[in-house]
Amino acid sequence: MEKLLIDDKTTKQTGPVECLGLTFPNDEERRKYFTEKLREHLQNPEFRKIEGFPIGTDEDILKLSDPPYYTACPNPFINDFIRHYGKPYNPKTDNYRREPFAADVSEGKNDPIYNAHSYHTKVPHKAIMRYILHYTEPGDIVFDGFCGTGMTGVAAQLCGDKRVVESLGYKVLDDGTILDEEGKPLSKLGSRRAVLNDLSPAATFIAYNYNTPVDAQEFEREAKQVLKKMEQDCGWMYETMHTDGKTKGKINYVVWSELLRCHQCNEENTYWELAVDPVTRYKKNITENILCKRCGSLDSYTKWERVFETYMDILLGHSLKRSKLVPVLINYSFGGKKLEKIPDAFDFLLLEKINQFPMPPNMPILPLPEGQNTKQPLVSSGVSHVHHFYIQRSLFAYSLAERCIAEGHVSLQNTLKYWLQSVGVGFTKLNRYLAASFSQVNRYLKGTLYIAPFIAEVSPVYSLTGKIKRLKNVFFLPSVKPSFIIETKSSTGNGVHESSIDYIFTDPPFGGNLMYSELNFIWEAWLKVFTNNKHEAIESKLQKKRLQEYQELMTRCFNEYYRILKAGRWMTVEFHNKKNSVWNAIQEALQQAGFVVADVRTLDKKQMTMKQMTTASAVKQDLIISAYKPNGGLEERFKLKAGTEDGVWDFVRTHLRQLPIFVKPKDGMAEIIAERLNYLLFDRMVAFHVQRGIIVPISAAEFYAGLEQRFPSRDDMYFLSEQISEYDKKRMTVKEMLQLQLFVTDEASAIQWLKQLLTKKPQTFQEIHPQFLKEIGGWQKYEKPLELMELLEQNFICYDGKGDVPSQIHSYLSTNYKELRNLPKDGPSLRDKANDRWYVPDPNKAQDLEKLREKALLKEFEEYKTFTGRKFKSFRLEAVRAGFKRAWQERDYQTIISVSKKIPENVLQEDQKLLMWYDQAVTRMGVD
């Protein structure tokens, strides 16, 4: 694979070192100085009260940290970093202007940087680079409060690498100007600075190593020294007798199998013998019946019992039960070839000897925290402590590697720990044997602590040697000086100065997708610094965090993001979750914090996660939310105009200026920009008012009429006057518009579907009805069924054959029927053809219809207020929305809360509008 990083692999600085405006004789002196400063902070009790402060001793935190660039705790040097490198925000002189990045992104994961560590989730750094290049300039400060492995930092630094930038399809001119795929100026070549934060010490440790320049040759030399030392001390543990019975080979990996007991005759068999094809080594489908070789019974896998054994845990000092495992296959190297054999007497004697060998003192003997994932290995295999995840030989080897690294030079300790940790989980019983895989390294099921029936116990040489070669390609970045700063704490807490960040890219946890603190526990057990999960933004029954608590935590995080981001700047939120309720929780959290959503796109990582592949309803592509912090001018003006029509149109003008004007065509078709449609503009305007506690001064119909009067429209989208010429010019390059696909699931979507249908072609009830019946198959069970005629009468107008034919119907008929062209609007044949056709009313007539419809909706809402049952089984969602809006205008928050309790929880959480009114009512009432 082509290398896209710099050729000069030597990044070690031997002379004076400059750091945050201070100069030191060398890097070691820099580290000593800032370590003592960090020690002083750690001795301050108030410092340890910062939200999300990790669990660990001062010495373990200091040992893991490399201040000021990285601290395994809150970083007290972050604002020094920003003051030194950042650009102060001045609203009077600030002229920043960007549209949202309005293009779907597709970036694969088969990149040496991406694959350097097998963390649970990562966004490809090349995908993030596209956003950073679009929104920032060289030297700008980029923030990621859920940094994970630090891909945002890697992306920020690589914006200064010409070859990497050009690998995205861009062109870099001699003066550093970057041109996009269409040859238009996009940005300037140059590294950006990154401020990274995560709650997990395991994550920030990985992020630090991903972003730190390393002398690749020195790393290789030291890593090989560690392997040499390990070979001297424990190489004998990985020997096996060759088939000649005289000479020995070196073990690559050993396959272990669990034992199963036949429920008919109690015969114990290895699962390997029962369920694996001896030729292909592929496991049979567990739905197939398994034959007992002793009694001949044929039963499904679920009827066979897993065999447990009682053993003495010397480290804990008492006996325990565990799933019984036996070695069934050995893969070893001999004479330059890889061979396989069945374990023999030599191998079993060797295992007995190892089991009697004294264990090293530095291993973590820690109970697993109670959790959703941590109960899996306990139930299935009797694993209750960290050391139970290891075959004894692996535990000895891994402990020895940790000790060898700790005895080495301090400047490379974290780098070597990262190298070891990158394959660390692959040393445990979580490492599945996969016959189809070329390598058995790191073959664990991500996002779980699942122990499979077959385990591949790998040797240090087999798993770590190849990793040295791969890491050499990714252990150096364009800058000798680190261009990042990392801290470990919750994103809910204050730290960064207000209005100091130029751009935010973040990939937060989404609901209950992953239990990060549980999954990271094995890594953190060796690091000796642990996640404080009190502020972990997840859904978890054991942590007593429902969707509501998750949303509250995310709102607090986004509040902090809003505070530190400069006005008028952008935040990109990467989202992956199959639940609408979590999607709505994220959007509501964004709005509550003050952000305004301007665009939603997709990010295709090309390779899917296990849940995406195995779950039919799972979202196959991630979503990218582009949201902005309104500039100070709008906020100041809104304070003066709040609750007036002028305030409404000031917001709309500002919002339209932030939206994309034209999106790159797909397959020769232009895309409708959803945020420019009238009903979404109305929703954004309402949300902007509600989140600021201001009464919405106009109705939907008045808003739509005002849009028509004030802003030019094209293809049902609205623009500023200065934007329309650009849109028209680009629109001429395509023939058709790619219409938004509407799915009819409730009254609101049915109205939008009818509007789209009748705008193209005014039709009679008889023509509409069969089409409507085809569309309502997905009607929500809780949504009160409505007749088509009721929907038409409340939202559209039917021409009765009297007077002039309405312009909309006249335009359609004269365009599609030759004999009706050039006829007067009151012509008999034209009126006859137009009779009984339903059409979309113009904004002025729509206001009258809306008043009548709102009256009917509020009448129905009155019935819901007096409903005495526990929960509604079927109700009219639009009536509840109308009722909540009226109650909000009247500051009757109690009505919103009381009716919300009668709505099924999943419906409330999955409807963004109801959720907005409810959350605001709860906030105003101070209800828990």
Automatic annotation (TrEMBL):
Gene3D superfamilies cross-referenced by the UniProt entry: Vaccinia Virus protein VP39
Superkingdom of origin: Bacteria
SUPFAM superfamilies given in the database record: S-adenosyl-L-methionine-dependent methyltransferases (SSF53335)
GO process annotations (BP): methylation
InterPro entries registered for this protein in UniProt: DNA_methylase_N4/N6 (IPR002941), SAM-dependent_MTases_sf (IPR029063)
Signal peptide: none
DNA methylase N-4/N-6 domain sequence ranges: 111-162, 501-618
Keywords: Methyltransferase, Transferase
An example molecular function term from Gene Ontology annotations: N-methyltransferase activity
Name the record gives this protein: DNA methylase
Protein species of origin: Candidatus Jettenia caeni
